[in-house]
Specification:
The structure is a homodimer. Chain A contains 15 helices and 14 strands. By secondary structure, chain A is of the alpha/beta class. The radius of gyration of chain A is 27 Å and the shape is globular. The two termini of chain A are 41 Å apart.
Chain lengths: 415, 415
């Protein structure tokens, strides 16, 4: 027998206490997003291989778990040509590709704008390492078909609310705009083809400081006056109250003034809704890597950590690139697995919604006693108590210790 | 661009109203099973191909979505030998194979007995047809490591409670025992090697009646006196109150008397717990197809339909066959997709837990008005109201019609 006990490499079995925490957090996420009007949808785990390899997925396209054709189609496949001729599907590596497909498939039946909530597993054949799994859960909200800042306000304030509800006090969501990044670089004299490299270096500001950033610019051979002009932006107060305060009219001619005004409207609206439970700030140094962002970008982090617990932005071109039908879009992906990791490290205990009692029943019990017991069980359950019935072990002490891990503190024994 | 809009063949996109119903039913199932002490667990969707093809899965092993090896392992695979050398995993076709693996992998960290609840998608490359999908959700409860009838009682009463909570009044769970089926066939003179065929014919009793069954036995060439003796059992009252009443001492010498007594103890215990919301009856004609059942078997159905909405039984050998470590086991699988189908046909409306208001906001709104609006939104949300903020369409009438489908009945418009 070649039975394998361990799970597939890089994927997890979740013990009851782990699964309970995951379920609790998922419900907080679903309930809060639902309270903000996001609508749960579901797409299949298996996606057409054509959609997964349409070049919109970047590096993730190298990490696809591919699914073999079946039956005649497999027999007719020409392997000598290409091994991919054997394949017709793959496990989704994110929820964005399925969302784009879903939206174009169902648009006639959906509200416009559409506030979508999608939660599900995704799979990546990555090298497994601590905190990185080959199957993991993603939680995405996206607003499709709305180019207004209501999208940004709702995405940021709902996600901030969830972090607050999960007990992460003082979460900060930083916001910037790709077009602001570009305007600053342009005004400093960098040429368009260097922008991506410039942003990659700027993105290291947190880690290597402004001097480090300057040195990297110099190493890359950029013009000294460009470097000086660009870095001067970041010598200012790094935490400006508003984007208008930060820029004044210094980007005039390089940027639609509306873009700065919009950032500030998002800040003031979200900070009303947050009631101080979390905050949103303008951060002109925020970059975020994904090339598909076209406007605002945001990232959530917790005070005292450098860890991102979510991020997103506006991607007005992607739906069109995928499906041929343009639609403005803006999304936020909350870092579910990281949140679970942090709550676990912090010893978070899922609150019990009910009183719990375990009945340990010896195998020698007679039918009439069993019936009496169930009369009592019925009453307890009707009064809203969680009653676990289970066979009593000889070593009931050990049995109770294990059951305590699942919240059973009270025990009754029946013989 | 070869982008494909429709989902993978045989798999589903769920619209918001469908996803909402699925989520509602899943929570009812999880909460009720949890109230009975079942513990949620999670296993990966991808399982080792060795485990999926170990001959325990029967016909389902022909329906596996197989996953291609990656990297060097794929390059080193010898396709000329066997196409399966290209494969190292597959999507699970049920939750029982992963459960057996999970139990042997984690037994030291789990309570004994272990009351497991597993809910997840499974995949079968079946011919798609109405109500049968290639990705669908299974909900299984299993009690591992307990040979007592507490397993049967808890499995049946918790599942009955769920059916009642979902509004299916008068659900009936029929119970029988494989060993009773065998003893009846044996006493009637059939030989052991014919049992499976005999049961397959008996299983048609509902559809073809006792005369039909007799004819099929005759066609199969069984001895007339065997047929007569066997069919005589089923000429009696088909709905006996207890198994003891049905059998008296007629199976003496063919069956441990304990087995009949146990069925009756299950009946009396469950019928106490049910409080009339559902019922359990002894049905000596219940067969159920799966060869791996070793003891009790059960099936849930709704009055006025012949549809099974769940089934299960005891399978004391399977865990041992899979893992080499014997463990008594008993399980019940509730028919999630069928229940969703029935609720949808019946026009079931998911109860709203909150008042819902949609704010439709025109794009011309000024920042100060927006801030005022969000002051109000904050208050409403704090008072427990679900507030959706969304951009107002020019055709707001149509927009409202679509939002009503998601439970928004009250609208406010902002310009």
């Amino acid at each position: 027998m070649s039975y394998i006990k361990t799970p597939t490499n890089g994927m997890n079995d979740y013990l009851p206490e782990e699964a309970k925490l995951r379920e609790y957090v998922l419900r907080q996420i679903k309930d809060t997003y639902s309270d903000f009007g996001f609508m749960l949808i579901e797409t299949p785990s298996v996606e057409h291989i054509e959609n997964l390899t349409s070049k919109q997925g970047g590096e993730n396209e190298k990490l696809i778990f591919k699914i073999l054709k079946r039956g005649e189609k497999l027999l007719n496949a020409n392997i000598s040509e290409d091994i991919d001729s054997l394949v017709d599907g793959g496990l989704r590596y994110d929820l964005t590709v399925p969302l784009a497909r879903y939206y174009s498939n169902n648009i006639g039946k959906l509200p416009t704008p559409f506030k979508a909530l999608q939660i599900g597993n995704v799979w990546r054949a990555d090298r497994p390492q601590k905190g990185r799994y080959r199957q993991f859960t993603q939680c995405d909200i996206d607003i499709l078909g709305d180019s207004s800042i209501l999208s940004e306000i709702e995405l940021v304030s709902s996600t901030g609310s969830i972090l607050a509800k999960l007990g992460f006090s003082g979460a900060v969501i930083r916001i910037n705009d790709r077009r602001i990044l570009r305007a600053m670089a342009q005004k400093s004299g960098f040429s368009e083809e260097d922008f991506d490299k410039v942003f990659i270096i700027l993105d290291k500001l947190d880690k290597i400081g402004l001097d480090g950033v300057k040195k990297e610019f110099e190493k890359s051979g950029y013009d000294a006056s460009n470097i000086e002009g660009y870095c001067a932006w970041f010598e200012k107060d790094a935490k400006p109250k508003t984007a208008s305060e930060f820029f004044g009219n210094k980007l005039e001619g390089y940027l639609e003034p509306e873009i700065i005004k919009n950032i500030d409207s998002v800040l003031s609206s979200v900070n009303i809704v947050s009631g101080g439970d979390f905050s949103v700030i303008f951060d002109p140094t925020l970059v975020r890597g994904m090339a598909y962002y076209t406007g605002t970008i945001f990232e959530a982090s917790l005070p005292g950590t450098n860890l991102s617990v979510g991020g997103g932005g506006r991607y007005d071109k992607m739906i069109g690139n995928f499906t041929g039908n343009e639609a403005p879009a803006c999304g936020f992906s909350i870092g579910f697995e990281r949140i679970i990791g942090l709550l676990t490290e912090n010893g978070f205990v899922v609150p019990e919604s009910k009183e719990k009692i375990a009945f340990l029943v010896d195998s020698s019990i007679e039918t009439n006693k069993l019936c009496e017991m169930f009369e009592e069980v019925k009453k307890l359950r009707e009064s809203g108590i969680n009653v676990m019935i289970t066979s009593r072990n000889k070593n009931a002490k050990f049995q109770k210790d294990v059951l305590r891990k699942s919240g059973y503190e009270e025990f009754r024994e029946f013989f």
